[in-house]
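Chapter summary example.
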Amino acid sequence: MLRLLDATGPTRREWLRLEGWHLAAWAAGARRSATAAATGTSNAASRTSTQLGRAKSVIFLVVGGGQSQLETWDPKPQAPAEIRGQFGTIPTTLPGVRLCEHLPRLARLTRHYAIVRSMTHDDLDHGSALYATLTGRFHPRKSSNPPPKPSDFPTLAALLHQVRPRSTSDVARPYSAVHINGPILIPEEVGPGQFGGFLGRAVEPLSVPHPTAGEGLFQDLLPQTELPTIRLQQRQTLLQALDATVADWGRERRCLDHQTFTRQAFELLASAEGRRAFELHHEPQRLRQRYGLWRAGQACLLARRLVEAGVPWITVFFNRSVRGQDKSTATEAYGWDTHNDIFEAMQQHLLPPFDQTFSALLEDMHDRGLLDQTLVVCAGEFGRAPKVAFEPGFAGRSPGRKHWAGAYSVVLAGGGVRGGQVFGESDAIAAYVKERPVGPADLAATMFAALGIDPATHYHDALARPFAVSVGQPI
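The structure predicted for these 475 residues follows.
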């Protein structure tokens, strides 16, 4: 096992290594719970150490576009200028570890998180590489930008629905996974890996495209004051009777999905507590400003509120598009795909809000005692090339860095991860991994292990074919 989690005890070979996604559909159906498929449980599940299974929730912060490791978590100040780039570095609270000069808040918080500098794979385009990040599986068409398909592997949040269904009696929380500020665009089309795939729509997470929608988010689902509870129950009974007349349709996946959506809509109607988690106006304005009043900032604040509400999995897309800057110069439009103009984009549009928002999330989670029971993961699909160069085929007037997956960095905090450490190492120019390589499947395995789910556990698709939760090893 790759030792990043603060774990003790026995291991099992150290654990074996689209239609429509708009919010209206989710508001009508709330969250998707796991339906019929059976789930296998390996013997290793009962031998999981308490440290590995200490997390109650996962926050997966996705920085789409290819965040440069050299301008963030793995700078190389001793490298030649064409490698190290224009930015300087600053010390952190961890002796000998330096970060980019434009991450001052995060540099002061290294005691709370671990940096993995040895992520690596061989997929070099956004669509398929993000698919690997969001599902833990490589796409059949590597280095491509394929559309979402029903035959895709399920997104990790949907997979959690399948292997750990929510109790039907838990009406206070009629969803067990939420995607915020998505779906992510590549750069203008919805990318694969964000949906239920071959498990169907019934297991898909609740999608909240805009975190600052406020009270209007579920306005259409609020109970009508003139509608007594008894009448709402009568309507539900009538709907159940109608469903019973077409029981034979129940074998069709679309009908199963519809039944799931309907049940969850009624549960959300009955759950004031569930709706309240989405109402950001209850937060002090000072705290909202600390997170940042942009979409990513409020999305991370909403993620914290959902952790407090008991939601086990929250995926936050930090940016809506991997490269929105081609269409708009607004800071919120920017993605991390910086082929050209990398230093201007990073200094003026990407690093300041990222530093403010991510540090606010870590501080707030720690101050509320939530970090120990929540695994926070910040990752993208790959990094950027070691050499700074101008790419003629892309917009921009100054050099940047092309796609690179030979070595890049991710960050993990809380949920059993020992903070204040660097795991793995890249070479002198951050081009390739020098020791302790980690792949997308290992990252997925780590998240499920933190939740106490053995990655070797099997689930089944509609044809009863078995699949492991992850083919990777927990870090």
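To summarize the output: Residues 7-50 have pLDDT under 50 and may be disordered.
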